[in-house]
Each structure stands twice: as structure tokens, then as C-alpha cells.
Amino acid sequence: MPTAIKISGRSGRNQLINDTYEPMQITHHDRPCWVARAVAPRYLFHSGKSRWVISKQIDDGARCWAYVQDSGSSQDPSSCPGPWTVCDQDNQWREDAAVKCVSVPADHDKFVQLRMTLDAEMRQYGLIDPKNLKELWKRLDYNGNNVVSLAEIDKMVVELVAGGTWPAWLNNKPALMRAYKKTILKDGDGDDWVERHEFHALLLNIFWFNKLWQVYEAVDTGHDRRMDIGEFMSGLSKMGLQLSQAEAQQEFASIDGNHGGQVLFVEFCAYVRKRVNPDDHPNFDADIVSGEHATRAVRNHRGHEATLANPRECRKLWTVLDFNGNQIVSLAEIDKLCVEQYPLLNHKPALMRAYKKAISKSGGGNGDDWVQKKEFKKLMAYIFYFNKVFWLFEQGMDSTDRRLNFQDFKKCLLVIGVKLSDADMRRDFSACDKNGGGWVLFDEFCAFVASKNCPQAMTDMLD
After folding, report:
1. Residue 81, CB half-sphere, CA atoms under 13 Å: how many?
2. Nearest to 201 by CA among 294, 114, 137
3. Inter-residue contact 14 to 103 (CB < 8 Å)
4. What CA–CA distance (Å, rounded) separates 152 from 143?
5. Can you give the pLDDT of all 463 residues of the chain as single tens digits?
6. Interatomic CA distance for residues 175 and 206, integer angstroms
7. Vertex 445 angle, CA 439 and 447, to 5°
8. Beta bridge partners of 3
9. What angle separates helix 406-415 from helix 376-396, to the nearest 10 degrees?
10. Are 122 and 29 in contact (CB under 8 A)?
11. Which residues does residue 36 pair with via DSSP β-bridges, in sequence order?
């Protein structure tokens, strides 16, 4: 019976090799292959010559993170005496006696087995072959700047599903958001863009979180994007659990991180991560706890370039925007800046709201159709603010028509932790729906958010 391989003991650079590797259904050079339980492109296989290697993709092993010399005709690396050799911080290869490699029983947990289906399905859609990945990246990164935003990723998924290239189950907004967050904050370098070397991880995450969304949606029989204790207990078998009522209540309480009586999708994902990899601590993982802290990640990665805290950087950015030096800029010029320099902020409804607010007298402008240099700092603050509001608005949308019904509206409030009775939510919805049409548009939603919670962070940026 195939066994799993556990690698442990590595610290410092390339400690990512520490994981349990489950047996795959394929061979390479007539030897078995393993893939990391953690949903990331990390494979353990034989190079075909004299080494077992751990690498980002199954190939000749020339570009790997670690390797051990094969003892002869071994069928797995746990029988090799070692030591393992790992690339250190200075790019030098050194033996590391601390790295241990042992054989352990394969895991038959439902979600571990679900993880094991990913590579085969991605291979089915041509997403393992390096040539295919290169072509798909060119399609996604159409402007060739080597970074892509969430909006661009969403556009790619929508188009591939609509064209029949990908199946419809891969197009779910909550799953896409989690895939994007994990790619940039856990697998990537912490900024707000997916870079070319993170693309394979992104695709793996898109498949994984959409599979989790299918399970979550099957248990969430109320289809309100939250799981209560009744739904949880009724759906135990769908999650591969056999528990008594008391055990189920205890398990539910451990998943419900904020003790709100409901399990949101992000909490469900953290729970699954812990089941798949017991050594992980998902409640401390950046993609799980990130919430609205994206600005901090940008600042950590790019200093003050992506914030309004540095007047010098603001002046430099104004010069880029006002390229002809006439001291005024149009909506088209603002849009061009976001498309080319800040793709994460490139959401047209948010840009329109930011532009209108910046030129209005109530927003600090003089009421004309241009943003002047003295209004620029406020414009940038409005762009950040309305993009955040638009992100929230998108969490509620079940369709692509950019409007919310009452159930969508409730989802938005739940995302930000608002706890109101159904009657109070209906009252707020009616107040927000100015024309009584039964739908809340983005402009109406912006007015509602501003009336309920004046953004102190934005005020601080302008002081």
C-alpha cells in the first residue's frame, strides 16, 4: 500500500520543504511521486539519475529546493541514508543533517483526498504543462507588466468558463477571493498583485477553493453564505465526519472563530487547512486574518510608495499623472494611471465615485470637471476608500449586474461583522433603496456606508 513521506527539520531558507507528501497516481522515471498536503506546487520525485528531489514541478530536478542522493534502486527517499542537501540563503548548496525524511501512513481524510484530485484535474485542463501555463499567463497579463490584479484574474475565469474551456464550478466569487488572498499573502510575497512566479500557485488555489466552496455550499442549505449549527450537524457526512451531537457541537464551536454562531467560508477554509495539515496554524496565516489589512501588506512590500503618507512620493505620482504639466487631470487620465500603475485599484465604479467626490465642493473640489493638483491627495484617498467599499459590494453580489437585493445586502453586512435583526436590516435596506425598486446600486450603497461609518482611516490620511 502506498505510503506518505514526511519531511521535517529544515529551518531558514527553503523551510517550505517541511511537509507531509501524499502519494500521487502517477510515476516519473518509473518511480512514485508525492505532492505536499499543503495546497501548493511542491513535489517529491526521482530525477531519473541519482537523486530524490523536492521541486516546484515534476521535471528533471535541475531547479529544486532540496535533494538526497539515491542509495541505488530505492522506491522512496525514506530509505536513503542522507543527508539532504538544501540551498542556503547565500545560494550555496549545503548538507543539512537536521532534515529528516520518514515514511508515514497515507491519510484518507476526505479533504486530504480532495486535495489529491487537484493535480489530475489541472492536468486534464492543460494547467500543468509549462508551455500551456506560459500561454495562459500571456493572456492574463495582457499588458505585459508581469503582475495581475484580482479584477484581471476574475475576468480570465469568467471568460474561460463562458467559452467552455473551464467548467462552470470554477467561477465562484468567494472561492476566487480566497484563492487570490492565499496566493498573495501565504504563497507569495505579501503585496496585492499576483506575479508570474506565483501563477501556478494561483491556479492550484482556484481549483482548491472552488472544491471547498462546493462542499460549503452543499452544507449551507440556506444559501446565505453562512453555516449555522443545524446545517453543520445535518451536513456532517458531506464533510467526512462521524460525530455524536455533543462532539459535533464542540467541533462547530472550534470552527466558529469569532463565536458569532455562524461559520463563514473563510472560517471553514481555516478549519479544512488544519485538517489537511495538522502542523499548520491557519488562524495566524496572513490570508485568513488579512481582512481589510491589505494596505499594511502594500506598505511592508513597497514602503510609502503605495500610501499617502509621503508628500514627496505624492508629488512624484502627480507628475506621472499630469504628464503634460497643465496642473489638471481628467477622469480618463486617472483611469489610465490605475490601469498601468495600480491594477488592484482598477474598478470603474469605484474610480467614478472617487472622481466625482474629488471634484465636488462637498469633497473638497471646486465643482468643475477636472482634478487639480491641490485636490490630488484627496482624490487618492477617495480611490482607496471607494475601492474598499466596492470590494465589500462585490462580496454580496450573486450576479454580474452590479446591484444588491435584500439577501445580497445582508451578506455585505455579515462580511463586516454587523449584527442586526432581520427587521433592522430590512429597515436599512429600505432606507438605502432610495427609489424603492428593490435593488441597491453601488452609488446608493456608498451613501449608506458613509452614513453608517465615517472612514476615520481616510480622515487620518488627509490630515
Report:
1. 2
2. 137
3. no
4. 11
5. 579 999 999 998 999 999 999 999 999 999 999 999 989 999 999 999 899 999 999 987 888 999 999 987 899 999 999 899 999 989 899 999 999 999 999 999 999 999 999 999 999 999 988 889 999 999 998 888 888 888 889 889 999 999 999 999 999 988 998 999 899 888 887 777 899 999 999 999 999 999 999 999 999 999 888 899 999 999 999 999 999 999 999 999 999 876 778 898 888 999 999 899 877 665 556 566 544 343 443 344 444 344 455 677 788 888 888 887 888 888 888 888 887 777 778 888 889 999 989 998 888 888 888 899 888 988 988 998 898 888 888 877 765 667 888 888 888 887 766 777 888 888 989 988 877 788 888 888 888 887 765 444 344 333 3
6. 7
7. 130
8. 105
9. 120
10. no
11. 21
Task: Report yes or no: 416 and 260 within 8 Å, Cβ to Cβ.
Answer: no
Q: Which of 36, 27, 74 is nearest to 55 (CA)?
A: 36
Please give the grid coordinates belonging to residue 427. 429597515
CA 219, 225, 227, 231 dihedral sign is negative
- With 0-12 / 13-18 / 19 or more C-beta atoms within 10 angstroms meaning exposed / middle / buried, residue 389 is buried
Query: Cell 493535480 maps to which residue?
Result: 119
Collect all residues with Cβ–Cβ distance below 8 Å to 307 and sequence separation of at least 6: 295, 298, 299, 313, 461
CA 184/CA 405 separation, integer angstroms? 31
Q: Which of 130, 125, 210 is nearest to 163 (CA)?
A: 125
Q: At what angle do helices 331-341 and 376-396 cross, to 10 degrees?
A: 70
Q: 94 near 86, Cβ under 8 Å?
A: yes
Pairing of strands 51-55, 66-69: antiparallel
Q: Is the pTM of this model over 0.70?
A: no
